[in-house]
Q: What sequence folds into this?
């Protein structure tokens, strides 16, 4: 009888040095396998679609995705532009980082904002996160994809993020109205992707499907990938709302009576629109410290995202409507 | 800190990518509805401490509102992520979940049990090293267990854990467990599943999942987790000959031409001789670019870019090979698992994707269908959704492949319906049919282009499709006469007339209509080969058959003319009195009345005779032929 097996949370490779050397010439590690699979998917997308685009959200997953795209087409450049859906409510540091990365890498960066939403003054405070997300993110994304006629949009979503994402294909079909039909997904076997589309239909492609949050951090650490400094702990002005720490990134956030921003050491596990993104108290100011904190963490990254809380199936519904 | 510099990293702490860590085991769970697959996976996630506090809080509250366990933690809710799944308490689609123990990482594909979702189960199994098959201890081995085990064996899975669940509901009866085990081992033996471990479990309570059950002391084997951590599933494809399906040709500038792809099998080093298939060109490897930079060698599984010493023609779909030659043929035999709700049709054109290659393909013969219950080979004319068969395929061009049993990447394919774009089937190649090598095309000295020049025309097919009474034959006849006046050579193939001769053995069922169209397409193609313009007037109600006919000739040689007269107008005219008979119930299958007509989506020419006279329609077609240089 086998004795009790002790189960542990995934330890970071930084802490678990292998105690025996591999016998053969070179082994393929976990991260190398993930990397090889993602590069395969990126190349399939470039080869099979007329006009692909990479959705660039500036977050850590996007940073990894961009890094992989640079590798996949090296010594050339990725044969597709980057597209950022700018809600106008992103952290200022994100926008600065975005422009700098695109410039350094010499990539085409397209930025789209839903001008209708902007002129209607849609904001996350008065219209609620559901309406705001629909207009400024989902509708904006659909506008941009239609305007440019992209037939494939590459995104950094991972299956471990959320339950409906765990169900999604790597090559995920969208109707002419950008809708996802979760009950009628194309079977996806081996590494064979059915990329055929009728006019007006499109594909969402998720090269990071099989990565976990910890894989992302391990890879950023191993490959020295630039990330927005908001992921690292620093003193930042925050207010506490509904149990979440919201950073006061500019003067547009209406303060409640008596509410006073306080400077606290915080960092972000996930980045989005600043009024909808909760910070966590942390002193992890370096990547190895983040990874250690991750391993010890007892909450998931999406806890910091207000928009997933609207209803139990809110992600699935948003995705069906065309959200990423 | 500047934006473009990564934050401070202590170099000693940074893990290197090639530091091997725990290996990953990919497994799939399958079994019938309510056998507890999702509960088992949820339990594995729970016991491996993969679940975080906020996820546990959500689980606890959802178990109360949506759970099926009377308020106890309902582990199935962890994996049944779709609204419809939670509402119905069933699994519809594959969920991929990740967890790890001290010894291994796991990717688990939790798949549906309902027979109608068998294709999703196959999807989950296609990338798995091992399968956990669940059975309900009260029911034992049932049809769905056989079906799933059969698919597992076809997909090349050799390792199975048989988890006999709900042992608490049979009072932990060891004898019952032993008899289920014996029955399954017999089945596995027939299917060639070599490694089976049977484990009695109670998934919701965790008995023998991670911790050994105290309620079944008679069981002395490993727990599910212990077995998954220790089983050796290694099948080392790096020992096989080198195969690199070319995905992408990287040409950033004139001095660099790299061939990108993921190595399917074998290893490669700089200086190695390679051969491009199917062209057969030779070259040597100049440089190997890997994600980690330039290297001397690379092995199976790596995504690399190769440059060659010689300028030779290589494009996507080609395979770079070394060592023994792979199979190259345009005919092959394979097992198919049919996925599409629309049944398989022998002779219809599908798109086949294998590795990075894509080609038109036709199923020439369904050798047999496999009866899931008995494993017997039975004769059949079609495969319906979720059925398994053995077929012969004829491809539009030669494919480079291996038998599936030798190489999963090089031996697997999917068939896609070219009209609906649905994934119609998954295929596992058994062998190459060398027929192509034996039956050589007779190379003819006088070919199509010679004949076409003689006749001063570009041969083509004018395919008139539309409802009965739409005016197809009338217009085709006018075009035929007009071409004769112009001194051109045409032949008119009229559907009704052909049914008196070559097609007189055919009736009007869907299958017979398809065969009717197939024969006419073949005859039209022969006329095109003879340098002639073939006019076909045929209802040809199905898009797929017209697509097949289009692909029977070369690109640009097929002109689809939709005679789009509205049904009401056709019925008003009723030149042969057929609509009247159909309405009276005297004609059981009549297109437009009780049999579908699939209108062309992008015909070359559309004509509505309620708006355009037959003569004007004829002139429009002649003008089209002139403008496109057929005349």
A:
């Amino acid at each position: 009888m086998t004795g009790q097996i002790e189960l542990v949370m995934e330890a970071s490779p930084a802490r678990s040095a292998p105690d025996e050397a591999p016998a053969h010439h070179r082994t393929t590690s976990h991260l190398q396998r993930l990397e090889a699979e993602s590069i395969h998917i990126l190349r399939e997308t470039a080869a099979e679609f007329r006009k692909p685009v990479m959705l660039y959200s500036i977050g850590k997953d996007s940073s990894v995705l961009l890094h992989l795209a640079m590798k996949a087409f090296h010594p050339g450049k990725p044969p597709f532009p980057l597209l950022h859906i700018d809600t106008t409510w992103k952290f200022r540091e994100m926008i600065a980082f975005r422009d700098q990365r695109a410039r350094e890498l010499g990539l085409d960066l397209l930025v789209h904002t839903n001008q209708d939403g902007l002129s209607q003054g849609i904001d996350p405070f008065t219209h609620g996160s559901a309406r705001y997300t629909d207009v400024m993110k989902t509708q904006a994304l659909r506008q941009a994809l239609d305007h440019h006629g992209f037939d494939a949009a590459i995104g950094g979503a991972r299956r471990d993020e959320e339950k409906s994402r765990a169900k999604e294909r790597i090559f995920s079909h969208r109707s002419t109205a950008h809708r996802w039909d979760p009950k009628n997904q194309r079977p996806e076997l081996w590494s064979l992707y059915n990329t055929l589309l009728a006019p007006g239909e499109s594909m969402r492609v998720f090269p990071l499907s099989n990565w976990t949050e910890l894989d992302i951090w391990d890879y950023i650490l191993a490959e020295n990938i630039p990330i927005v400094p908001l992921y690292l702990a620093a003193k930042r002005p925050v207010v506490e709302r509904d149990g979440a720490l919201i950073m006061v990134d500019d003067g547009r956030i209406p303060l409640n009576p008596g509410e006073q921003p306080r400077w606290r050491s915080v960092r972000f596990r996930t980045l989005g629109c600043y009024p909808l993104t909760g910070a966590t108290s942390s002193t992890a100011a370096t990547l190895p410290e983040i990874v250690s904190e991750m391993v010890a963490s007892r909450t998931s990254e999406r806890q910091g995202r207000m928009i997933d809380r609207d209803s139990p199936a809110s992600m699935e519904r948003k995705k069906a409507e065309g959200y990423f | 800190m500047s934006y473009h510099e990564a934050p401070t990293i202590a170099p000693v702490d940074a893990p290197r990518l090639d530091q091997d860590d725990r290996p990953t085991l990919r497994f799939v769970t399958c079994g019938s509805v309510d056998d507890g697959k999702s509960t088992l996976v949820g339990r594995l996630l729970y016991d491996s401490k993969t679940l975080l506090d906020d996820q546990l809080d959500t689980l606890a509250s959802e178990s109360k509102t949506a759970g099926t366990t009377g308020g106890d933690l309902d582990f199935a809710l962890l994996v049944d992520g779709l609204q419809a799944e939670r509402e119905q308490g069933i699994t519809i689609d594959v969920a991929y979940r990740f967890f790890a123990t001290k010894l291994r990482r796991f990717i688990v594909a939790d798949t549906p049990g309902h027979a109608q979702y068998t294709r999703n189960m196959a999807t989950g199994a296609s990338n798995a090293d091992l399968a956990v098959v669940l059975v309900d201890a009260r029911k034992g081995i049932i049809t769905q267990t056989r079906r799933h085990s059969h698919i597992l064996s076809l997909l090349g899975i050799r390792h199975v854990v048989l988890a006999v669940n709900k042992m608490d509901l049979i009072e932990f009866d060891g004898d019952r467990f032993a008899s289920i085990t014996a029955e399954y081992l017999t089945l596995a033996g027939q299917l060639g599943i070599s490694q089976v471990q049977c484990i009695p479990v109670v998934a919701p309570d965790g008995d023998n999942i991670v911790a050994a059950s105290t309620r079944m002391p008679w069981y002395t084997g490993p727990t599910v987790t212990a077995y998954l951590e220790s089983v050796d599933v290694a099948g080392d494809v790096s020992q096989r000959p080198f195969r690199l399906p070319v995905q992408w040709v990287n040409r950033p500038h004139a001095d660099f031409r790299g061939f990108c792809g993921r190595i399917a099998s074998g290893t490669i080093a700089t200086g190695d001789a390679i051969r491009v298939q199917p062209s057969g060109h030779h070259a040597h490897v100049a440089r190997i670019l890997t994600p980690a930079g330039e290297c001397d060698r690379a092995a199976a599984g790596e995504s690399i870019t190769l440059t060659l010493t010689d300028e030779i023609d290589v494009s996507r779909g080609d395979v770079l090979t070394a060592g023994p030659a792979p199979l190259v043929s345009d005919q092959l035999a394979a097992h198919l698992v049919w996925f599409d709700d629309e049944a398989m049709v022998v002779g219809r054109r599908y798109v086949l994707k294998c590795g990075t290659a894509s080609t038109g393909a036709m199923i020439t013969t369904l050798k047999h269908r496999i009866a899931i219950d008995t494993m017997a080979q039975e004769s059949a004319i079609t495969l319906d959704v979720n059925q398994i068969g053995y077929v012969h395929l004829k491809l539009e061009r030669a494919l480079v492949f291996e038998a599936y049993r030798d190489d999963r990447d090089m031996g697997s394919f999917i068939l896609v319906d070219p009209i609906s774009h649905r994934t119609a089937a998954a295929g596992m190649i058994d062998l190459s049919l060398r027929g192509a090598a034996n039956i050589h095309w007779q190379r003819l000295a006088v070919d199509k282009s010679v004949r076409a020049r003689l006749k001063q025309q570009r041969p083509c097919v004018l395919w008139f499709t539309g409802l009965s009474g739409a005016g197809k034959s009338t217009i085709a006849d006018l075009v035929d006469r007009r071409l004769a006046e112009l001194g051109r050579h045409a032949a008119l193939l009229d559907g009704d007339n052909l049914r008196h001769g070559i097609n007189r053995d055919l009736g009007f069922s869907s299958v017979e209509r398809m065969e009717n169209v197939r024969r006419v397409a073949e005859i039209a193609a022969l006329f095109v080969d003879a340098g002639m313009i073939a006019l076909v007037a045929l209802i040809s109600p199905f898009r797929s058959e017209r697509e097949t006919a289009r692909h029977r000739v070369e690109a640009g040689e097929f002109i689809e003319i939709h005679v789009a007269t509205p049904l009401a107008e056709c019925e008003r005219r009723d030149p042969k009195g057929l609509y009247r008979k159909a309405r009276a119930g005297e004609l059981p299958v009549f297109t437009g009345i009780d049999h579908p007509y699939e209108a062309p989506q992008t015909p070359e020419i559309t004509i509505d005779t309620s708006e355009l006279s037959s003569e004007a329609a004829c002139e429009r077609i002649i003008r089209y032929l002139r403008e496109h240089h057929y005349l």
Q: What stands out?
A: The two ends of chain B are 72 Å apart (CA to CA). Chain B touches chain A through 104 residues (CB under 8 Å). Confidence is low (pLDDT under 50) at residues 1-20, 435-443 of chain B.
